[in-house]
Design brief:
Helix content: over 70%
Number of helices: 9
Distance between the termini: 90 Å
Largest sheet: 4 strands, antiparallel
Structural class: mainly alpha
Radius of gyration: 23 Å
Shape: globular
Strand order of the largest sheet: 1-2-3-4
Length: about 280
Amino acid sequence: MDQLFTADALFTLFMLVLLQAVLGFDNLLYISLESKKAEPSRQSYVRKLGVGLAIILRIALLFALMSLIQYFQNPFASLHQEGMLEFEFNVHSVIVLVGGVFIIYTAIKEIWHMMLMHEHEVEDKSKKRSETMIIVWIVIMNLVFSFDSILSAMALTSDMDYTPQLILMSIAIIAGGVLMIVLADKVATFLQKNRMYEVLGLFILFIVGIMLLSEGGHLAHIKIFGNPIEPMSKTTFYFVIIVLVIVDIVQGRYQKNLLAQKEKEEAILEKVKSDN
């Protein structure tokens, strides 16, 4: 326990909380978009309850991973056809792959609904999910996203004894969860007031799904025609996000300039007509 009250332990705790915050960005975006399917007056409650339950289950998952880590990493199904298809699935890889598929499906479905919004506005309103289902999905996806952060945290604290390691990681998970509850409301409010950024958010979510698929494929050692699936690095992920944000900002301003120019031209035409 003396390890908890050292400068190294405090620095490690800071790094763990920072890790939870950075790796929780994609999760935060999913929570904000998923909670929109609830009634407006209940969305904040749904987000807070979903993340709160997820914090409890994250700590339970932490206990499970620290005790059963080898079972999560051991392959349970494999195939080796050299030059064609090779894989070694374990529990960790399957969870990440399924999470990636679900995130991509969610992003594509929401983008499609957005494109047909005016044609099916009444139909979409009738398809509001129940609060229970929304909370369940928030909790499930929170656990999917938490695998990497917990495993990374375990690597950061690998030189500690079991009890201090567990305490520090639990504190970081709770701190990260509280931060997520606070920021989820702010992100959701921002998206509500700036509806045009919803498209950007959904495409970022789509990229998150691609990242999870690549990571799951790497964990499963999938090779297709001899080519291994390589995980998307965090650097690449954030670079793509920055590019998407810049493109969205530039396109928005360019569109405003075009509209202003069009209005100016129409005003000139109206003036010419009135003069004649």
